[in-house]
Amino acid sequence: MASHDVLLDAELNEERYIDLLTKLIGESEHVQNNPPKFVPQEDKVIQHLLEALRPYSTENGGPLQVEHVTYVPGRGNLIIKYMSEGAKGIVSFVGSHLDVVPANPETWDRNPFKLVREDDKLYGRGTTDCLGHVALITELFIQLAEKKVQLNTNMVAIFIACEENSTIPDVGVDKLLKDGRLDELKGGPVYWVDSADSQPCVGTAAAIVWNLHAKGHLFHSGLPHNGINSFEFANEAVAYLQKRFYEDFPAHEKEDLYQFATPSTMKPTQVRIAEGSFNQLPPWTKIIGDIRLTPFYNVEDVMSKIKTYVDELNATDFAALPTRGPCSKYVVKSPEGEDIKGVLTLEFEGEPFKGIACDLESDGHHMLRNATKEVLGKAEPFSICGSLPLVGDLQEAGFDVQVCGYGHSSVYHGDNEYCSVSAMKNAIKIMSRVIHGFSSKYA
Ligand SMILES: [Zn+2]
To answer: Are residues 241 and 318 in the same domain?
Structure first.
């Protein structure tokens, strides 16, 4: 048994790390997540993890409890535990996921599904998000087992399936939570290892996807006074909704404290429109967009307010909407003299992700912050309007969720994704120091 002080001298076993990551990236093609085209087979990654962990697992007399938890065939999750007798509290690393976003080999300069090392950079789909972390945490637990580190706290790692697509429930961590498999993690911080840039990420945004359908009235473009141009209608309506949103949900004072890069935003990002000809007023237009909401505002409140804005527009015959030129209207008369009115319909798509403002006063935060400062020379927590699944729900359920990650946000979901060996070397030092901090606390 080694004293927990060995954790202060932790070094990445570079060869073993790259060897494992090479195997994982070699499977990345099979864990691309974009159903129905790509349904990941997370077990293909897990088989390499099981192989790496086997010599240290309880079945071979080692200290690591390794459990492969499967809800959907071929799509498992992996739980690793390093438990110590008489230990108090628990420190967990959760959120590193086994699936990746799709990669298009044609737009990469390298094969995305093969690990390629160039100096300090390790290229391949998943190196930053998130297989680089999966290999890192596996290496961390192997080191605990190899050195038989005497800890006064228990350690758990959970690698999850199906993180990159939230439309299919009950495959990954949402099901583990429902099954009570995460309950014991409440006894300490839950480090969600799926952000980037090596500094603590203390805030993320909620993500709400909306669509606005504008029903107009088809007519000859040469007789525009008789039709309702749904294209103009939808655009003016979205501009109006944005204006109301920014009045009701302006920059929040707490965003400075959390170093959010941007305040909350609402914007259109996609459009669908009726097939037709350029000399027809299009009868319908659908604009799709999202809202990124900093965690100081309430998701349900925003959704109900947006609905109200749309209801008001419909109820007032769109009096608040500007028109374009002398003939543009949202209510016209039929040949029989009856009103033909445009109709706006708002829908929200899927379950929104909740944002998170991490507890800045918890031991979980302080330990991570201190360890980061010791290793990198500075601690500069940041927040982003990116979104992570489940972290908001976990925090609401009473978990001390803290977010970190050691890849690079510049290549998140991008072409030529890479992570850096040097950043991963620092990462294992930071994580080892966090563990040391908690073990010392409970000594
Ligand atoms: Zn990720």
So the answer is: yes
